[in-house]
Amino acid sequence: MTGPILEARNLCWGPPRRPDILTDISFAMAEGEVMAICGANGAGKSSLLRLLYRYVPPRSGTVSLMGRDLWLHTARETARTVAAVLQEQPTDFALTARQIVALGRLPHRAGFASAALRDTEVVSAALERLDLARFADMPFGTLSGGEKQRVMVARALAQEPRVLILDEPTNHLDIRHQLELLALLRGLGLTVICTLHDLTLAAQFADRVLVLADGRVLSDGPPDLALSEHHIATAFNVTARVDRSGPAPRFSFHL
């Protein structure tokens, strides 16, 4: 497709009978583009993601998926294109890791034997890709926080989406698995939107960074421009220094 795969136009949203949390949010995502959303706690990052994966409709403005209003797509249509990995994890500990990942195939279920074989292949490939094959038949509740997080990413990959939305995907992961996961996400060829607290990881991982402050877009562009000392200071209410002398920027912060 020639236009953006996902586009937000003048989005505003807030809880019922309360003021807007998000105000006038606009951006467009090209196919295969990777964006990190950064900002202080309460800036509206998770709320913005909920609008993008069709959990809540905007109060005003639109989200378009492949040129069509997201809310004109059915939930099933959306789930075939957009997958989300949230910070909240399932509480049904009776399911195995494999069964959790297999839930990602529900939007594609057609009831044919050939489809069932395809589902099995896709689930096994997702488990392998996230280095989870040895945990596949273990109860989800027995896994560590990092292992659970990787299972949820594998479930999203099993949906075979074109857009992948993740809320703090590196939570619960050790340093090695953080780097491995972000490298995997970059190599998928998908449009990826994720929130990240770690500005260093955001700068290394993303094609562009969108910084939110008080529910508005403060900056949106390549990491070098979006994560300037001024923007970081404004968004996080700290004094920021960015050292760009090495191969990747290093950030320091002071009150």
Automatic annotation (TrEMBL):
PROSITE patterns associated with the record: ABC_TRANSPORTER_1, ABC_TRANSPORTER_2
Record Pfam families: ABC_tran
CDD domains the UniProt entry points to: ABC_Iron-Siderophores_B12_Hemin
Source organism, top-level taxon: Bacteria
Listed GO MF terms: ATP binding
Protein keywords: ATP-binding, Nucleotide-binding
Residue ranges of every copy of the ABC transporter domain listed in the record: 6-239
Record-given protein name: ABC transporter ATP-binding protein
